[in-house]
Amino acid sequence: MSDTDGAPPLLEMRGVNTHYGAVHILKDVEFSIYPGELVCLLGGNASGKSTTLKTLLGMVAPTTGDVLLNGEIVTDESISYRVERGVTMVPENRRLFKRLSVKDNLELGAFLRSDRSAIDADLERIFEMFPRVKERLSQKAGTLSGGEQQMVAMGRALMSDPKVLLMDEPSMGLAPALVQTNFELIKQIHSQGVAIFVVEQNANMALSIADRGWVLQTGRVVLDDTAEALLANPHLRASYLGET
Amino acid sequence: MSTEDRGPSMSTAFIEEPSDEELPARRMLDQDWRKVFNYGLLLALVLVFVALTNMPVNLDHRMLIEPIFSMGYLSLFWLPAVFGLVVCREPVLAGMPSHAKGSREVLAGSLVGLIGGAGLSVLTFLLDNFNLRDPLVNWSPQLLELLSFQRDTAFGIAIWLPVGLVLGTFGGLAHLLSATVRRMLSWAFASVIAFAIFETVILDLSEGFAWLGAEWLVEELYFIRGGLTMHGAAVLAVVGGLFAAFGRDRAHRAKERFDALEGTSRTRANAIGLLVVAAALVILPLFLGGITNELLANVGLFVLLALGLNIVVGLAGILDLGYVAFFAIGGYTAGILTTTNRGESWPDWMPQFYWGTALVAVVILAALAGLFIGAPVIRMRGDYLAIVTLGFGEIIRLLFLSDWLGGYTGAAQGVTNIPGVQVFGLATVKGTDPRAVFYLVLFFCAIAIYVSWRLERSRLGRAWMAIREDESVAEAMGINTVNAKLMAFVVGAVLASFSGAILAAKVGSVFPNSFIILVSIVILVVVIVGGMGNIAGVIVGSVVLIGILGGPRQPGLLQEFSEYKLLIYGVLLIWMMLKRPEGLVPNVRRTRELHQDEYLQDAWLRGEIDADSEHTDDSHSNGNTGVLPA
Ligand SMILES: Nc1ncnc2c1ncn2[C@@H]1O[C@H](COP(=O)(O)OP(=O)(O)OP(=O)(O)O)[C@@H](O)[C@H]1O
Ligand SMILES: [Mg+2]
Fold first, then answer.
1. Does the beta-carbon distance from B469 to A99 stay under 8 Å?
2. What is the set of domains in chain B, with CATH numbers?
3. Phi, psi of B453, rounded to the nearest 5 degrees
4. Is the CB of A138 under 6 A from ligand 1?
5. pLDDT tens digits, residue range B8-25?
6. Using CA atoms, how far apart are residues B277 and B265, in angstroms rounded to an integer?
7. pLDDT tens, residue by residue, B216-233
8. Is the CB–ligand 1 distance for residue A49 below 6 Å?
9. What is the mean pLDDT of residues A19-24?
10. Can you list the domains of chain A with their CATH numbers?
């Protein structure tokens, strides 16, 4: 759909191969995410989903192929270079700085920014979105409940003022009721114009809010389609969506 | 034993108020026999161990109260009393009824003391009949003589049983007293011991305050050959006890009032406090004698070192065991550049520098060394990093010792003839003038404290803490972890090199031996015992460990204990890790986290968790929320 707009993709992978040591993880992965899209990445365990996100952010360097950000090749650029230009990750298991306060966690999200008034404005925006977070500013992040930690993790990522948010299994370890809220939050962030690339095990729910989806199988993109098409795909229904 | 053991720490950590209801005291023989036996056995082992360290013999000549009580006997006597007291303690859970205390507790104390005493009886018997001098170097006739109170062996064997019994009973009885009386007694006891132990410093102080009539007071308190006089001890006990009864409350109230301050008045109070401390540190040394100033100077050197290591370990979370390398580099650089007797390999045209000028080179070299050692090391994590830094620490020392660099560094002879520091032609800071050394150290400590304080609150400080918490996430936030960690190394290195440069001027010489790995370990212990990541804690840690016990080569207040310094360090470290992992001066937030489990158990037992989610008492509510139903 967005392919026809003519603008360059926000984030793109071209023929990316990634290795851990000698083990080949990502195999000729190609795809692009356009500004404001909500894309979800599906795949079984160890299929390379987290690795894809890490390669996009620059935590893992591809062996061949390129990562492009706004049409610019950033394969050899540092993480901070990409974060400054609008890529941010919410890591698997949230991974807050446990012994630091909620405030410190949020501030660290804005580590590369120096415009104090803009940072404060973003803080306010996050407090509006997550009033609970504001109540717990001086509490140690490690003592928050799972749901609260998820809010802080999202808030921390938003503090960098991202154009695209990479989320690695945001609903992992949350109670069923919270999973629902969590997807609401993702939709809410998306509605503010942030593109979202979300890895999810919960394919049904993820596809219900996504524009598009990819399916990764042992490091290869095997399906790439709109969310509706994927939801209707009998092959995918059988392998990922189970009995539904 | 382990379950009972957890009790006291759990209850004392968070609960002060006694329970409302009280069950009647239990019958005397209704004992937890297993616990009593375990504590007794442990006491016996500890007593025998202490005896075999030869501490009692070595300290026997040092009188506490002339002529009746020496420090040698004190090293044994305090143990049964403490064990007797501890065995009676049981977790008191607020809201849960507990038993009244009674004869049962006293009996437990007595029994523990008795079993402990029996341990020494057995040792006395063995000492007389077997010669185990070969593995146990302190298996000596002197020890036997001491253990049998200078009488025959039979007397010694017999006497330890009642002595242990009586001391243990004291411990048990102390448990029956009300908290106030118990506090008064322990303060009375502690003030006598403190004045006896710190005799040298107090004598030293009295000279400075002679005009206040201090000389007279000291003559009354102390015996000429050392030790307190009987009436001196009595007066101290009374004063200490009275202070515990009246003064302590007042001090507490003052502290509460201070804590209640907020906003500008809090800032003002802080500033005034800081000013008073600073003024005291500047003025007091004028009245102190050489010994005390020397002690303070040594403490200051370690404050510098520990503040630097605190940045590396406490803030950035890099466990650097080779930290002494930077201390050595500072010492050697300053020494070589300022000495009048330079190694033969240096070219003749190289001038002899002024210490202040040399300091520039010291800073540059230390920073470079920080980069060079840091660069290969920071890519590693955790235990690998610790081992590799340990190696680097040793490598630097061996380089200074080697033949290869010997022409420059003097190899084993080290660098000698290092002159003192001229300060504006006003004074020369050198070892013979400890007061001047102290002022120089104080100046650098002030810088180090300010730098640490600012860094902690800076962007860099925040980056360090993020790295300490989770390095890869810190990276994902865009923090350049390599640079940040290198900066930690560099700042730490520079602070340590200041300390080394002052040491060179103070002692007048530097040797490879002054920079052994033990120094690294001691600094680390200072940081851990004081409280990691906490400036005040690091200072307190230095005062307690270096000032009182002494540094690796620096005598402390307790010179008699210098042989046992490392033993005491070790015991202290273990005890701290078990009971107070947050250090002597806890960082409030860290304490909460470390005691969280205990707190949660207590809170749960009190039914507090579901009772009040809007509880505003800071120290409690924050621990609470993690388990509140969301
Ligand atoms: N640092 C690493 N070193 C070596 N192998 C790794 C490393 N990280 C991941 N792998 C391997 O790469 C493969 C893909 O891992 P990845 O974390 O991308 O999977 P995933 O799709 O996110 O799986 P999951 O759904 O279980 O999170 C796995 O086989 C994993 O063992
Ligand atoms: Mg994963």
1. yes
2. 31-176 (no CATH), 290-584 (1.10.3470)
3. -65, -45
4. no
5. 444 344 444 555 567 787
6. 18
7. 778 778 877 777 888 888
8. yes
9. 90
10. 8-86+163-244 (3.40.50.300), 96-161 (no CATH)
